[in-house]
Design goal:
5-stranded parallel β-sheet, Arg-tRNA-synth_N_sf, cytoplasm, 4-stranded antiparallel β-sheet, Gyrase A, domain 2, Isoleucyl-tRNA Synthetase, Domain 1, 53% helix, protein biosynthesis
Length: 573
């Protein structure tokens, strides 16, 4: 398993402290924290040692600092803390060379998850409906989490678990028979219109609603005519879905739906009947296990004999473990479904499944501020179209003003628009709600996708103007405070990728990229104020090469991080 530059120095510092104190390094390493940047990079507090040594913490820190010698670190006592600062060499060269050697794979560690498998259930739209804007959180979060685990060497089995079973498809079917045009059965937009009409009719006409229920019962009975119509709806939906996913650069290892478990659920119910048991409640079959006050029971079958989400999710969990023997099975689904997954996982545990604890619900908050249009769902495709159009106006303005050169304004606007929407979601802590704002997400300034894409394009442009990537450079020349601050930000990506995967939290990567871009911006701007600090400094080829090498490492780090987030990396903006 490869170790990041930061982790190596942190481990060496902890080892030296442990040796001086005569304790195992494993006891010390958790106590080594990031230092206040004014005082160093690593810090160890001596307060816990005061009682045993019968000394004041500052005295303990001073004594420890005098005895420690760690290659590559400057160790000093600051009050009760022992602090360590990375020496410019070999630290600077280790970071820059590590980034450039890895390329866009920087941050990855193929050995970390070698031999492990993670199943990730995400996106999961309903057939006969468009992919709505409300699907962006599960789709983008799931895609990024999958990328993070791939980067760490895990075998990823991404599953787009379609909602393709249930009474709603009875509604589409009877609605199509009533309102549909057979010549347009391959038209996704037409199916959506039919569903909206049928859903409204069912709310007003109990007899029509019962027809929909009856059609679903025919589906569950596997009647050929019912299944033929359902299959046509499913294929039309898949064709539309795949076009939108391709636009976003998202692919799945598996596209399968709840229908996969049709005919397999009775076996699961029989298994549950043995342990923990089932019982009848108002004509329905429920899992027989203790429930908290006010907690609804886990329904396996309704009183009309039809199955429910829980039944299908239990069957799916067993099937996935049988197929993939997973080490983790993640469900990237809204916080609203927290009770559902707690109950499903608890049922699996009560069934005696030893792998039940490997199942994890990865919840996320809601998006506010994107209103529906005429009572209908806002389609994700429409949002991407609008983002592109908003960006295209700005691109054309910049081209006209001579601030931008591009041979394909349309393609560039598509890339920036997608980056705006994706980053606008992933920069938020996944558990938090946020409010969508068009002006904010498409801005070239602030905490936005276009700002990061611009930072990447700017670094690429500097390299072009500087004559390309230098083959050799002298890292000892990179001593400016702005340079050392930037190197420290670049160093963080590998550890951030691991933390983001462990916490299922892409926002950690998003926030790091903002820090990298901000540090590079300060570095670039310093050159505007002082000619000697310019990256493309004149009259000093060695300094110019060193700064271009640092710029190259910055470009690569931004590209690597944006790629993990699923965001395009234009070379020119």
């Amino acid at each position: 398993m490869s170790t990041s530059v930061y982790s190596r120095y942190r481990a060496a510092f902890a080892q030296a402290l442990a040796g001086a104190l005569g304790v195992p390094a494993a006891d010390i390493e958790p106590q080594v924290k990031p230092a206040d940047p004014a005082h160093g990079d690593l810090s160890f507090a001596t307060f816990p040692l005061a009682k045993a040594q019968k000394k004041a913490p500052p005295a303990i820190a001073a004594q420890l600092a005098q005895t420690l010698q760690v290659p590559g670190l400057e160790v000093k006592a600051v009050g009760p803390y022992v602090n360590a600062r990375f020496l410019p060499l070999p630290f600077t060269q280790e970071v820059i060379d590590g980034v450039r050697l890895a390329g866009v794979a920087y941050g990855s560690d193929a050995e970390d998850g070698k031999g492990k498998t993670v199943v990730i259930d995400y996106s999961s739209p309903n057939i006969a409906k468009p992919i709505g804007f409300h699907h962006i959180r599960t789709t983008f979060l799931g895609h990024c989490i999958a990328n993070l685990y791939r980067a760490l060497g895990w075998r990823v089995e991404g599953i787009n678990y379609l909602g393709d079973w249930g009474k709603q498809f009875g509604l589409v079917a009877v609605g199509f028979q009533e309102y549909g045009d057979p010549a347009r059965i391959d038209d996704m937009a037409h199916l959506v219109q039919v569903y909206v009409q049928a859903n409204k009719r069912a709310g007003e006409d109990p007899a029509f609603d019962e027809k929909a229920r009856e059609f679903f019962r025919r589906m569950e009975a596997n009647e050929p005519d019912a299944m033929k119509l359902w299959n046509q709806f499913r294929e039309t939906s898949l064709k539309g879905f795949k076009r939108v996913y391709a636009r976003m650069g998202i692919d799945f290892e598996h596209i399968e739906g709840e229908s996969r478990y049709q005919g397999k659920m009775d076996a699961v119910i029989e298994q549950i009947a043995k342990k923990p048991g089932t019982k009848e409640s108002q004509g329905a079959i429920i899992v027989d296990m203790p429930y908290a006050d006010g907690e609804p029971p886990v329904l396996l079958k309704k009183n009309d004999g039809s199955t429910l989400y829980a039944t299908r999710d239990l069957a799916a969990a067993e099937d996935r473990y049988a197929r993939f023997n997973f080490d983790k099975s993640l469900y990237v689904v809204a916080q609203d479904q927290a009770l559902h997954f707690r109950q499903v996982f608890r049922t699996l545990k009560e069934m005696g499944q030893p792998w039940a604890d490997k199942c994890v619900h990865v919840p996320f908050g809601r998006i506010h501020g994107m209103s529906t249009r005429k009572g209908q769902v806002v389609e994700l495709d429409q949002v991407l179209d609008e983002a592109k159009e908003r960006v295209l106006q700005r691109v054309k303005e910049n081209v006209a003003q001579g601030n931008l050169e591009t041979t394909d304004a349309d393609a560039l606007s598509e890339q920036i628009g997608l980056g705006a929407i994706v980053f606008g979601d992933l920069k938020h802590n996944r558990a938090s709600d946020y409010t969508f704002d068009w002006d904010e997400v498409t801005s070239l300034e602030g905490h936005t996708g276009p700002y990061l894409q611009y930072a990447h394009a700017r670094s690429a442009n500097v390299l072009r103007k500087g004559g390309g990537v230098p083959t050799a450079y002298d890292p000892s020349l990179l001593t400016l405070p702005e340079e050392q601050a930037l190197v420290r930000e670049l160093m963080r990506l590998p550890d951030t990728v691991k933390a983001a995967a462990e916490q299922y939290e892409p926002s950690l990567v998003a926030r790091l990229l903002l820090d990298v871009a901000a540090a590079y911006s300060r570095y670039y701007t310093a050159g505007n104020k002082d000619r000697d600090k310019r990256i493309l400094v004149e009259g000093n080829d060695a300094m110019r090469a060193a700064r271009l090498a640092l710029t190259d490492a910055t470009r690569i780090t931004l590209a690597a991080g944006l790629t993990l987030l699923g965001i395009p990396t234009p070379e020119n903006m």
